[in-house]
Amino acid sequence: MKSRINKYTLMLALLLPAIAVKAQTEYSLNKALEYALINNENVKNAQLSTLDAEAQVFETRADGLPQITAGFNYTNNLFIAKSPIPNSFITGDPNAEGVTLVGFGAQHVGNLNVGLEQMLWDGSFFIGLQAAKVLREKVIVDKAKAEVDVIEQVTKAYYLVLVNQTRVDLINANLLTLNTTLDETRTLYENGFAERIDVSRLQVQTNNLLAERSGVEQSVKASKDLLKLSMGMPVTEEITLTGELEALDFKYDLSELDGFALSNRLEVQQLNFLKELAGLQIKNTTSQYIPKVTFNAGWGRNTGSNDFSDLTNGKKWFSNSQIGLNVSIPIFDGLRKKYTIQRNKIELETLNNQYSLLTNSLSQEFENAKRNLEVSLEQLEVQESNMELAQEVSSITKEKYKEGVGSNLEVTNAEKDYKEAETNYLNALYNAIISKVDLDKALGKLRNNDN
């Protein structure tokens, strides 16, 4: 029995690593973006802001609807206050002297009332309702801007992971080749056809690659953590990327570049809404010079008795009702509204200046993004050519060394140059990716199609 348990324990121990690997979720770039647009905290907060803005519209609209209130109160006058009344007033005799204390009121008093108030005219209400609707539209754009920022962050972080993983793969390939060369050189040394220093050089190069691989593997982990943070995924979860660097397309149609328009940039739309809100604020303050008109109506019933049981007798309750019109006319407020309007106009002028600066900056950003992509692609082409040449030199140097017409030092230097060329190529590739993402953003292409 014990041997059977040990057997199952051993099988479970062998299966656990496989289960752990399967638990790692695989993500393409599109899948990572879909996850981020649902789980990123900034996007979720932006979504909450849209719900808040929607509620604010209905909250403002409620001020223009009838306001109905109802109330009931009961008072028990335990000790009724008494007032002195001249006896002459009570008896009718003007010569009567002295006063009599008389209590006014009943011990038990009840009152029931219903009131209605309806705003007929208030300039601030109509402008406030318009401002709430504009704010709702702005918050929707704010949400789209938050999504664009997340798309940019996730895309850059995703490709950073792929580049670092590729660096690890290249280092492993170089180590495989270098170990083969080291074994061959060690054999030649043992047979007297190579020097000890040749083996030492290759061993040093191998050790350096092993140390470099450890550093790059740590970079892979750090870049994955950055990606998960951008996605809104717990950093403790495992993630596997299925994207490939070879699938990248850096091409743009000329029509796309010629179609650049500032109106496509969400930053411009956000500032336009702020300018519109500032203009509405000026109108709102100006409207406060206009009288406000309110209609009100009320109905109620009341009673009073020294006997509490009378309060339950409907015949002893008396009805009352009234309607009214209230007109509030502003006359003088110490020039407060005048200076409030002055400040509002200054705010609008400030926004106009910010708009000018923003549009100029975005135009410059677009031009820089175009140039950066052109330069990055040129550098990428050069580094790719250099890597191919370095690989060719490395292969030729190895063949010459095997044929006995080359030195081990040449092989070592060629390998070093090839590895450096690979690193330069990957750096150039990542720079090109960043430049492309920046140009997509400048063109307003980094948008969530679900919006």
Number of individual domains: 2
CATH topology of the largest domain: Outer membrane efflux proteins (OEP)
The share of residues in helices is 55-70%
N-to-C SSE string, H for helix and E for strand: HEHHEEHEEHHEHHEEHH
**Structural Rg:** 41 Å
Gross morphology is: elongated
Work out the number of β strands.
8
- Helix/strand class: alpha+beta
Provide a count of the helices.
10
Distance between the termini: 63 Å
Architecture of the largest domain, CATH level 2? Up-down Bundle
Rounded mean pLDDT score: 88
What about the largest sheet?
Answer: 4 strands, antiparallel
- Spans of at least 5 consecutive residues with low confidence: 1-23
Explain this structure to me?
The protein has 451 residues and is an alpha+beta fold. It folds into two domains: 26-62 and 122-290 and 333-442, Outer membrane efflux proteins (OEP), CATH 1.20.1600.10; 76-121 and 297-329. The protein is 65% helix and 14% strand. Helix 2 crosses helix 5, helix 3 (41-62) packs antiparallel against helix 5 (123-190) and helix 5 packs antiparallel against helix 10. The two termini are 63 Å apart. Residues 1-23 have low confidence and may be disordered. It is found in: Cell outer membrane.
Detail the topology: elements first, then pairings:
Elements: H1 2-23, E1 25-27, H2 29-39, H3 41-62, E2 67-76, E3 82-86, H4 87-91, E4 99-103, E5 108-121, H5 123-190, H6 196-231, E6 239-241, H7 254-258, H8 266-287, E7 292-305, E8 318-328, H9 336-402, H10 408-442
Parallel strand pairs: 1-6
Antiparallel strand pairs: 2-5, 3-4, 5-7, 7-8
Helix pairs in contact: 2-5, 3-5, 5-6, 5-8, 5-10, 6-10, 8-9, 9-10
